[in-house]
Fold this sequence. Notes:
Elements: E1 2-5, H1 8-25, H2 35-38, H3 42-55, E2 60-63, E3 81-84, E4 89-91, H4 92-95, E5 110-114, H5 116-124, E6 126-128, E7 139-141, H6 142-151, E8 157-158, E9 167-168, H7 170-180, E10 194-199, E11 204-208, E12 214-222, E13 225-233, E14 243-250, E15 255-261, E16 263-265, E17 278-281, E18 290-299
Parallel strand pairs: 13-16
Antiparallel strand pairs: 1-2, 3-4, 3-5, 6-7, 8-9, 10-18, 11-12, 12-13, 13-17, 14-15, 14-18
Amino acid sequence: MARFSFGEEEEEENEMESRANNKRKGQSPTEGGNQNKSQKSAGDAEQLRSGIEDKMGGISVTIDPDALDCFICCEPLRPPLYQCVNGHVACRACSIKLPQNKCPNCSQAIDFTRCRFLEKIIESIKSPCCYSEHGCNKTLSYPEIFSHQETCVHAPCFCPIPKCTFSGTPEKISTHFRSHHESSAIDFQYGKQFKASLAKSEPYIVLPSENGLLFLLLNDKHDKGNNLSVACIRPGGSTGSDFVYELMVSNAESSLQLKASAINVRKWEGVYPSKVFLLVPQNFCSSYVDIVLNVCIKSG
């Protein structure tokens, strides 16, 4: 669905076209009108056309974003685009994976005919970042918009405490946390080992740093034990130092250790790292209730 709004420019363009046609036919702009108007110079007409073209440099368009998604992967269409004989459009990455090159919508063959008209439309769409009010000044093409939003360094972060809706920069989140939720945290200094204790059923504890960032010691409990890892509350594309953490859990006979890079999260939504974590078996700790471990977070 699209709506094009030209406003007064459309009326001026029609008037200009009418005058130009009348001049080519040797007629006056209006029947019985002033003879001086019928003798309007070609230079004046060209000046009017130029003014209209300047105004028409951009138009206001409203488009349903779903109309610009690939019907196979449901992601924004990225040129080159291909279509089946019935006009169903797919991005190249999806179309070449289809069994027997058949369209899932109508079972007709996708014959790798380029849909260049739609490619031009998509490539012409420009939009400011949705986080412009937070400081991002980038203007993006349509295929770049969504991937940029995932890594924009100006994207707001959210307080990790359940039911708290405060959002802002990582520094503002830290200030808010210290003012409203300080009692539920363990402060630390970079490069110095500290002891942390969390209940085996506790999903995470908050670790405020010395430079205004919040970290989360994550605890993913499951049947085999607990997966421990560390996350930093900041945008995914943040520049600057990467953070490396070390975790160590010991009992009377042995110890478990992990050294890894902290992940970045803007908002804690209960999704734990699935590849890098320290697995603490269910009966490894002497306590049946808590996990006591040594933690060290270093700024790279």
